[in-house]
Specification:
Keywords: Isomerase, Membrane, NAD, Transmembrane, Transmembrane helix. This is UDP-glucuronate 4-epimerase. Its EC number is 5.1.3.6. The chain is of the alpha/beta class. The protein has a single domain, classed as NAD(P)-binding Rossmann-like Domain (Rossmann fold). It has helices at 2-8, 13-31, 35-67, 73-83, 101-112, 129-141, 154-163, 185-205, 241-260, 282-291, 314-327, 357-368, 393-399, 407-421, and strands spanning 92-96, 116-121, 145-148, 168-171, 211-217, 264-269, 272-273, 295-300, 308-309, 312-313, 333-334, 337-338, 344-349, 355-356, 373-378. It has a 7-stranded parallel sheet with strand order 3-2-1-4-5-6-13, sandwiched between helices. It has a two-stranded parallel sheet with strand order 7-10. It has a two-stranded parallel ribbon with strand order 8-15. Bound molecules: uridine-5'-diphosphate-glucuronic acid.
């Protein structure tokens, strides 16, 4: 009994080590008594490892093949049908980020006027993917097909260009959000830098090359104090990694324009809001919290100055996107070489009338008929800028861009959508 207890609960761990070492030694000598046996064992182990590794690579390859959510005749047919142009001089557009906020609106607008549209989206979980799935269903109900895939997947992109000779790419897929860059910097590099380059590589290699219109951001103006912001103002002092990746995007696209003749239009969006919007944005999360009786945090700038944004309504942004597609010239390259210089443009798409964040909250309170629990705090140093204000003269002159929706009207439409989408009782909604 005592011996058994000693074996199970040794008083000194060192003792066990010594005893085990002796036992292992004895076994070792028995097993590998001769050099030839050892040689055979070694051969056996090498063969075992080799067959394990080849089996692993077989499993990897086949699971990649099995889990790929794209490919096949049926898939290609869906893409061709969705890309069909149904009007004279229409265009066929690959919309990246099509299940996103701006992407879904632009896709529907293009489809409605008879253009061909194919969407691409990776449905990541930066915010509730069920909202992205709902947008996908909405697009499907219009006859727009959204491919589930990533802009970092070069094989998928070249396959898409094989199936459809897209005339345009509307590139809206990105890691959005200014403050989230503190938490997850790598995701900004992955989508906004690496993903952008992979997409441009596919566009450059496509024959014919498409014209590219893509989403930059008002955040590139960074610490600028000169208002309103004009395209010619300096943009070399970003305040967040998000802004830095968007600014890099402007430079990366310039390179592809310069070397390969890709026609490029970059759009600096100013805090876009509206129905089917992004739950991570202030107007959306404030609405959710106000309705749930939870407090909202309102940031305030230096010297107790309210923060302000040039909030821009989604329908105005859509018009700016379509205007950009319609005025984009063709790319000029093929086979990796440009034939002549191609168009390179950058435009502000804003509303030209900044509104403070507390005013935004007051408008929401009025439409929601609920008082917000306001918690006002100093703006943390996490990438925010105190204000934005767009000068849109260039977009007005060259794209015919003319925003028509003020924040009051736009938020009214947003609140109406929000209450309906999230199933709130129509308490006083007749007034909306
Ligand atoms: O215009 C742009 O370029 C950018 O607009 C928005 O960024 P942002 O203007 O920061 O929009 P929100 O996150 O909705 O914030 C709006 C305002 O509310 C403030 N805020 C935000 C969140 C919060 O909890 N409290 C709060 O006071 C922010 O400081 C900011 O002044 C988008 O999130 C970016 O993807 C986009 O690129």
């Amino acid at each position: 009994m005592r011996m058994l207890e000693d074996e199970l609960f040794p008083s000194t761990p060192g003792k066990v080590k010594i005893e085990r070492a002796h036992a292992i030694n004895r076994q070792f000598h028995r097993c590998f008594a001769s050099t030839s046996t050892m040689f055979l064992w070694a051969l056996f182990l090498i063969a075992l490892t080799a067959s394990y590794l080849s089996f692993q690579s077989f499993v990897d390859t086949s699971s990649k093949y099995l889990s790929a959510s794209w490919g096949g005749l049926h898939w290609e047919k869906q893409i061709r049908v969705s890309a069909e142009v149904r009007r004279a001089h229409g265009i066929s557009v690959l919309v990246t980020g099509a299940a996103g906020f701006v992407g879904s609106h632009v896709s529907i607008a293009l489809h409605k006027r008879g253009d061909g549209v194919v969407g691409l989206d990776n449905f990541n979980s930066y915010y509730d993917p069920s909202l992205k799935k709902a947008r996908k269903s909405l697009l499907a109900s219009h006859g727009i097909f959204v491919v589930e895939g990533d802009i970092n997947d070069g094989r998928l992109l070249s396959k898409l260009f094989d199936v459809v000779p897209f005339t345009h790419v509307m590139h809206l897929a990105a890691q959005a959000g200014v403050r989230y860059a503190i938490e997850n910097p790598a995701s900004y590099v992955h989508s906004n830098i690496a993903g952008l380059v992979t997409l441009l590589e596919a566009c450059k290699a496509a024959d014919p090359q498409p014209a590219v219109v893509w989403a930059s951001s008002s955040s590139v103006y960074g610490l600028n104090e000169k208002v309103p912001f004009s395209e010619s103002d300096r943009t070399d002092r970003p305040a967040s990694l998000y802004a830095a990746t968007k600014k890099s995007g402007e430079e990366i696209t310039h390179t592809y324009n310069h070397i390969y003749g890709l026609s490029i239009t970059g759009l600096r969006f100013f805090t876009v809001y509206g129905p089917w919007g992004r739950p991570d944005m202030a107007y959306f999360s404030f609405t959710r919290n106000i309705l749930q009786g939870k407090p909202i945090t309102i940031y305030r700038g230096k010297d107790r100055v309210d923060l302000a944004r040039d909030f821009t309504y989604i329908d105005d942004i859509v018009k700016g996107c379509l205007g950009s597609l319609d005025t984009a010239e063709k790319s000029t390259g093929s086979g990796g070489k440009k034939r002549r210089p191609a168009q390179y443009r950058i435009y502000n798409l804003g509303n030209t009338s900044p509104v403070t964040v507390p005013t935004l909250v007051s408008i929401l309170e009025r439409y929601l008929k609920v008082k917000a629990k306001r918690n006002v705090v100093e703006m943390p140093g996490n990438g925010d800028v105190p204000f934005t204000h767009a000068n849109i003269s260039l977009a007005r002159a060259e794209l015919g861009y003319k925003p028509t929706t003020n924040l009051e009207t736009g938020l009214k439409k947003f609140v109406k959508w929000y209450l309906h989408y999230y199933g709130y009782r129509p308490r006083g909604s007749k007034n909306l």
